[in-house]
Amino acid sequence: MIRKCREEDFQAIYEIINDAAKAYDGYIPKDCYHKPYMDKDSLKNEIASGIIFYGFEEDGKLIGVMGIQDVLDLTLIRHAYVITEKRNKGIGTKLLNFLKTKTDKPVLVGTWATAKWAISFYQKHGYKLVSTEKKDHLLRKYWNIPDRQIETSVVLVDSKYHEQQKR
Length: 167
Prior knowledge:
It contains seven helices and seven strands, in the order βααβββαβαβααβα. By secondary structure, it is of the alpha+beta class. A seven-stranded mixed sheet has the order 1-2-3-4-5-7-6, sandwiched between helices.
């Protein structure tokens, strides 16, 4: 079952993110990988910035989360994570498809350039990588992340974004 996360889900969100982010260890630049990957204050700040988390619940327990955030004229998918033991079972797909119904705006996703599995996941769902120049522009305009993360990330966009750019 997919549901909007509540305040009392904070600890579960924190644990899911930090469990799932272990997959980045050895893949993303060492100076960008921390333990925990996202500390509690950073998670609080992300939520305060307008990210709304939705969770996939199984047997009364959250096992996956994905955030959505409207920024200016676009919607961002933020912090998409499924606990390690439940990966590759369609949970991410269900969350992504659900969140796409929550907006009429073009949807963008940012991820680490070396997280090939994440890039492949979004491409499988119709998202397309943008050029490095476009990526840098989009990350600076719509995200609030450090320059080092901009340098080492990619952005994928949905078909609505391409349609908007043609107008």
